[in-house]
Amino acid sequence: MITKVHMEALSPTMEEGQLVNWLKSEGDDVSNGEVLAEIETDKATMELVARGEGVLRKIFLDEGGTAPVGEVIAVIADAEEDISEVSGSGGGGSPSEDEEDDAEPAEAADDSESSSGAAEEEGQASEAEHDTSEAEPKESTSPDRAEGERIKASPLARRLAEDFGIDLAAVEGSGPAGRIVKRDVEEAKEKGVSAPTPSAPTAGDWSPDEEEYEDVAISQMRKTIAKRLVESIGPVPHFFLTIEVDMGRVMQARKTVNAMLEDEGRKVSINDFVLKATAGALRKHPNCNAHWLGADKGIRRFNPVHLGVAVAVEDGLITPVVRHAHQKGIARISDEVREMAGRAREKKLKPEEYTGATFSVSNLGMFGIEEFTAVINPPEAGILAVGGIEEIPVVEHGEVVVRPRMKITMSCDHRVIDGAQGARFLQTLKAMLEEPAAILV
Amino acid sequence: MASMTYRAALNEALREEMERDPDVFLMGEEVAEYDGAYKVSKGLLDEFGERRVVDSPISELGFGGLGVGAAMAGLRPVIEFMTFNFAFLAIDQVINAAAKMYYMSNGQFPMPVVFRGPTGAALQLSAQHSQACETYYAHAPGCKVVTPATPADAKGLLKASIRDDDPVAFMEGELLYNFKGEVPEDDDFVIPLGKAEVKREGADVSIITHGKMLHVALQAANKLEEDGVEAEVLDLRTVRPLDVDAILETVKKTNRAVYLEEGWSFLGVGAQVVTLIQEEAFDWLDAPVLRVTQADVPMPYAKNLEQLAKPNADRVVDACNKVLYR
Fold first, then answer.
1. In chain B, which among 292-311 make CB contacts under 8 A with chain A?
2. Which residue of A has its CA nearest to B313?
């Protein structure tokens, strides 16, 4: 049996993939589920597995080559099977199957001009044979749809989605040309599609005994705020709050902690304290630990804090997520960030490791940046931009003294967080950093 | 219940209605001395005599018109066409006289006439004798169109058609006459016109059909069952008036439908049913409604080509799989 190996959507937003290396060569036996190749997506290097078994007969895409999602890049078949019918391309030459399928309606329309052919075709439902081979299961968890593209859904699927309160934009269609049909909506309902599906924490010992989140209905006033502010500033209406924090106590605390960890060869950074304090402060201000789900669905407030930590990589940035950060000790947060940042630079993060954050932190202090603003990563409602610690003169008790000070700027999504709410959160955060013992409370 | 052929069920219906009502008579080519071309009227001449079982000349337009006149005069004629394929000449009497009379006479002349005979293809009767004719009769208002597929339906619906005060085109099938089935033993077994019947229950997809295609639909449903798909088969039994409620009910149950008919797709019965579904059950549809029909060509004489032109169970299975996105 012939199994075409397609370039699969290995990340939610992937449109094309680069073949890093083939782990199998032409002529090798492959079994279902075996890793065939490593593919670099827009986010990470992922494994492409076989969806059938037999012999890897032909490779169309060379290492280093790029192919759009859906393109046939290799063929698995029995050793003696005729595969001459199958064509693929190393970088886009012959038309892919999807294109053929797209052309179909036009052909059918042509047929109807000549009075005899069309009705027969229709009657015989002869197109039925097409869809089978293309219905390869897709790995991606969110739809592969360009922005503004019309959502195709059957009338029934639309009605069910409305009944279930499911946003069709978040549902992947399994029907012809990506049409969303009944089974897709039902599946989405089971999975709870609008939730960001936070995956289980890696350590396995975090079992929060509380609800993952609470959906908060929004008032008309908030809807109006959301609508008006978006008109003013763009899809996410940011505003910015900056606070200056005295970091003397944190620096002391860091020394103490690192002295304790020295034997284990571990150490924590200032930023780890910022992360730990942020998680603690967010627990006290759950309205900042939230997602904007849209005007029709309102706001989702999370109980656990899943902190996104912006990490610069060679050609961009990515935000690995420290899950349940509020429950983890500072050394552990430090370990996780360091480990994930390392893999992020090698593009080895799994999608579940860089999605599902409830709030993010970006730190450019190490570049000598004093203060900056960060752009919110929707649907999160806030992000902290953390600057470097500067020795500056400040007035304390009527005297000028030199203190290590650090500026934190919070970007807030005004649809979710109002100025005073953000300010109170920052106050708490400042208090925790200026008296690290408060983190324990 | 008695097991009998479709032919015998029709014979029983005629006999019972002729016994019940002396105004009922049968006329057509070779219905008397020869017992009917397909032996549907077997024994009726002996039983009811030549005034009530009348051999006609080979002139469909002529004796079709006699039937209309007899109905105007108060009788209840049953006019047998050897096949509806021979009745194109007579369609003027059916559409322009019978179907209009009640309306154009302002209700003075009810039209209790039944035109009956086989329709559709048998085997290798070629283009002129293999046409499914129901669409022609169903198109104009004023004529009812009945297409029984089983012996029980044949009996119950013929009795209802004879008792009905409107003209009825009662369409049988050469390939159905020998088909056996259970028929209730009841002198007054009448099936109301305009009532469809679910011939097989299923939750996954609706195969809607009429006439002898019912048997193809059931075959397809059996094949689908092997694949784990439960198809519901709805037999319209009466093409006009259409059982709107039954059609909508099955579509709302399964969310997908395939219309199967013996005739051509263009302006066919299925086209009407699809329109109804999209107008009335749009929000219940999970897939476009597909049709399985005869190929859009005159029926070929060659056996292999004829098989290719006719709808069959595999094509119905394909269409069902398509609307199921399988």
1. 292-297, 311
2. A124
Same domain, B216 and B278: yes
Tell me if chain A has a CB within 8 Å of the CB of B314: no
CATH number corresponding to A3-98: 2.40.50.100
Q: Do A119 and B266 touch (CB under 8 A)?
A: yes
Instruction: Check if B266 contacts A (Cβ < 8 Å).
Output: yes
Contacts of A131 in chain B (CB under 8 A): 322, 325
Tell me: do B208 and B283 sit in the same domain.
yes
pLDDT above 60 (res A199) = no
Residue A418 is a catalytic residue: yes
From chain B, the residues in CB contact with A125 under 8 A are 258, 290-292, 315, 318-319, 322
Amino acid at B267: L
Last residue of a domain, one of B116, B151, B183: B183
Task: Supply the mean pLDDT for chain A.
Answer: 80
Which one, of A48, A126, A54, lies nearest residue A86 by Cα?
A54
CATH of domain A213-440: 3.30.559.10
Query: Whole-angstrom Cα distance, residue A63 to residue A79?
Result: 23
Tokens of residue B60, six digits: 């469909």
What is the SS3 string spanning B131-176? CCCHHHHHHCCCCEEECCCCHHHHHHHHHHHHHCCCCEEEEECHHH
**Beta carbons of B319 and A125 less than 8 Å apart:** yes
Residue B188 lies in a domain: no
Q: With contacts defined as CB-CB under 8 Å, which chain A residues touch B271?
A: none
pLDDT for B256-304, tens place per residue? 999 999 999 999 999 999 999 999 999 899 999 999 999 999 999 999 9
> Residue B231: inside a domain, yes or no?
yes
Residues of B designated catalytic:
60, 129
Task: Supply the range of the domain harboring residue B306.
Answer: 197-323
The verdict on B209 and B263 lying in the same domain is: yes
Phi/psi for B36 (5° steps) reads: 95, 145
CB B254 within 8 A of CB B111: no
**Strand-pair category, B114-118 with B76-80:** parallel
Nearest CA in chain A to B253: A156
Judged by a CB distance cut-off of 8 A, whether residue A119 touches chain B is yes
Q: Considering only CB atoms, which chain B residues are within 8 Å of A115?
A: 296
Output the domain CATH number for residue B225. 3.40.50.920
Look at residue A153 and tell me whether its pLDDT is greater than 80: yes
Which of these, B224, B290, B214, lies nearest to B256 by C-alpha position?
Answer: B290
> What is the C-alpha separation between A242 and A371, in angstroms, rounded?
9
CA distance A123 to chain B (A): 4
Radius of gyration in angstroms for the set of CA atoms belonging to chain A, rounded to a whole number? 26
A375 pLDDT higher than 90: no
Q: Are residues B207 and B263 in the same domain?
A: yes
* Chain B residues with CB-CB distance to A183 below 8 A: 325
Q: How far is CA A375 from the centre of its chain?
A: 15
ipTM rounded to 2 decimals: 0.71
Q: What is the third-level CATH fold of A141-194?
A: Dihydrolipoamide Transferase (4.10.320)
B261 and B299 assigned to the same domain: yes
- CA-based nearest distance A152→chain B, Å: 12
Are residue B220 and residue B163 in the same domain, yes or no? Answer: no
Selected residues 140-179 of chain A with any CB under 8 Å from a CB in chain B: 154-159, 174-176
Nearest CA in chain A to B298: A116
Q: CATH no. for residue B93?
A: 3.40.50.970
Structurally, chain B folds into a number of domains equal to 2
Count Cβ atoms below 10 Å from residue A256 Cβ, excluding itself: 10
Cα A389 to Cα A250: distance, rounded to the nearest angstrom: 11
Closest residue in A to B325 (Cα) is A175
Q: Phi, psi (5° rounding) for residue A362?
A: -125, 135
Residues B211 and B174 in one domain: no
pLDDT score for A390: 92
